[in-house]
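[Q] Does anyone have a clean structure-token version of this?
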Amino acid sequence: MQLICGGVLEKFPELKVAFVESGAGWIPYWLHRMDEHYEAVPSFLPELKMEPSKYFKHQCWVATEGEEADMESVLRFVGDDRVVWASDYPHFDCKLPGTLGWTKHSGLSEEVLEKLLGKNAAALYNLKV
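[A] Here you go.
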């Protein structure tokens, strides 16, 4: 919250931020809540020139861990270009072997899976693919 609402992303528009080791399910609620505050009491956030969710969609990525329950909401709210997949290896809850088994029944298109499983991380880290 402080990165966005404190004006850090406004001041440094080329800064990239990745939220990892936290899953992604919290993002839709949190961004929606910050946007509500921005609309209701904009004087509390004088550093911001646009809604908090727009800063996230421009400069932030979130790592999903394995098979999250409501990935569709996350993708719908932040966009399929702001989510990267993480195996959570070597933690105990990493599903090895078979950590990518969820992709077969996810219902996500090949294009979206390509983004989640590699293209988005390449964009985040400025890697040529």
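[Q] Thanks! Anything notable?
[A] The domain at 2-124 is CATH 3.20.20.140 (TIM Barrel).
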